[in-house]
Amino acid sequence: xxxxxxxxxxxxxxxxxxxxxxxxSKEDKVLLAVDCIIFGFDKEELKILLIKRDFEPExxxxxxxxxxxxxxxxxxxxxxxxxxxxxxxxxxxxxQLYGFSKVDRDPAERTVSVAYYALINIEEHNQELIEQYSAxxxxxxxxxxxxxxxxxxxxxxxxRLRYRTSNKPIGxxxxxxxxxxxxxxxxYEAILDEELDKRNFINKxxxxxxxxxxxxxxxxxxxxxxxxxxxDKEKYDKKVEDGFxxxx
Amino acid sequence: xxxxxxxxxxxxxxxxxxxxxxxxSKEDKVLLAVDCIIFGFDKEELKILLIKRDFEPExxxxxxxxxxxxxxxxxxxxxxxxxxxxxxxxxxxxxQLYGFSKVDRDPAERTVSVAYYALINIEEHNQELIEQYSAxxxxxxxxxxxxxxxxxxxxxxxxRLRYRTSNKPIGxxxxxxxxxxxxxxxxYEAILDEELDKRNFINKxxxxxxxxxxxxxxxxxxxxxxxxxxxDKEKYDKKVEDGFxxxx
DNA sequence: TCAAAAGTGTTCACCGTACACCCATGG
DNA sequence: CCATGGGTGTACGGTGAACACTTTTGA
Lengths: 248, 248
Fold this sequence. Notes:
Chain A is of the alpha+beta class.
């Protein structure tokens, strides 16, 4: 057993340890950026929304949508603000990903960037705003090379999205409110990048018992038409309270 | 009363380089802290290493070990530096957790903190350094209330540790090089906070085929003695290359 | 000889997966 | 009437979980 000395504060300070200073004034400050990987789904493919950067450095190149943290906002606030600017929406699903901090990641100035990923219903984006930013949806496989370490951020986001969709029902954020089983399956196939068996998929989803089957049909995809479903958030929340864990 | 310097923005860089058309100069800069949740395991319980803060604000309270990011280092560098100061070791297993950014999280000054968690072999820590910092190991359940949002960081770290130990063999970082099956099981029980069946556990571990069973026995725990094992990193790495995924 | 921990296999239930045919409809 | 996508159920194997007794040896 290890014996600890209690309450001993040695007067000898380790000089190069920042926390030992009695105020923060000597510490370096940095610019803190927030960059957003914005995912959408267009019925077949997983896409990301990129902007054409209109300022130096790297002007004219494709980039994630980003901005800098302001003094009076949290990182989440900042990501929300950035997403709002580009899409016009509030309450977008988003999650903090990771902090990227290579010293020379931005050649203009030392900047640390915290990446967020967001999920939006691709049908609802605001076309005007997107044009204002020269933004464009790219399927993941056809996306251009991005500036700085943004490609790395995107890869990180895809990994996280895969993990997250398999234990939280966030996939629905990428779909319209009403969707067919087929669309849901295609979405999961796009995210997981693998084909799924139709019957097993439907059995699994129905087994979760968190969808409402509507009487309406979507007649656009076939002659027979396919039933529309809705995510039942209330039911899901209740089940989670009772110990249910989403798993797909 | 100590007066802290406010966030003074010095737009020197950009003013001296007018050809660089970036608009970074108007942006706020922040102090970027790195705080480390350091886990250890003492054969029975999962523990964290806390320090008694010896400067204002919150002097004398228990806190995570932390520091500030320096201009010329990455977040990982910074975490490594901080861990090295407290433990004397390099090459400690660590992983970035999450960025905490509540505007008033540190009452002294606007600070964003990126939390890291680290795993160390509790038997190898440097007693002198730990005393210098008035540091102490606390079992998770008996840890005191921490300053700022550090409790939240710890909770986050425990969740991540649980997840990570179930898909990467990082548990071994917390054990001595040679360990018994019993110790390994106790470790997993401590991390997952649930009891495991001895036979099932051993079958599962043996099924992974990533341990070397030594001929040595640990005679300290019983009259019969129990065989010692070692993690076979080479074998594990080879298996991973061949598509093996650790899962426990 | 007894106490205390080490070590060892089998059975069963459930879940994930593979797999094929009929239905409804518009053209 | 036919082409197209929609919708449905079962069988099998593998994995995870439950479960109890023997071995060793120092005191």
